Amino acid sequence: MAESEQAYFESIPWCARILNDYDFITVPTPSRTFKASTEDALFAETLKTHDTIRACLTLYKRPPTGKIYTGEIRTLLHLGPGLNGIPNICHGGIQATVLDEVMGFLMIVNKTLDTSVSGGGATANLNVSYLKPVTTPQTVLVIAKIREVKGRKYYVDGWIENADGMKLTKAEGLFLNFGGVLAKVAYAKI
What we know:
Layout: H1 2-10, H2 13-19, E1 24-27, H3 41-46, E2 53-61, E3 72-79, E4 84-86, E5 89-90, H4 92-113, E6 121-130, E7 138-150, E8 153-161, E9 167-177, H5 185-188
């Protein structure tokens, strides 16, 4: 499905510009892959339908020369009417779930880039502010950036924006790493 998702977003001019940005590298969205353990079942099955999130593609910011981490990821999502809380408006809980998921991808992407970073992680705190209605159906961009790293704590900012770059929903989160050494000196300088 990743190839068809890429083709879907490439057919939308503003998404194609994001996909063609040299500073970002496209990667499979980790939670969109089915796992027999049922890990990520919410995004890999429940929210992976034509009426919910029919397409999803993630990009991470190319690490600076000599570095093996990234401080930013972007995820394109097509939000369908099956996510509505009221007619034509995406449910606030879904918006929070999407932000939580994309903001958490930063840990996964950095673990993939730097294999010395080990262990899993989870959200410790997520504070969401709803700025404008997120209408459906609509393709949106979700951006997550690491604000600070302290030991095993990632402080992350994220937001959902529309095709015009207008912020619709924003969040601040604290994500914890549960194993190994999370933040070497390099991560503290993101």
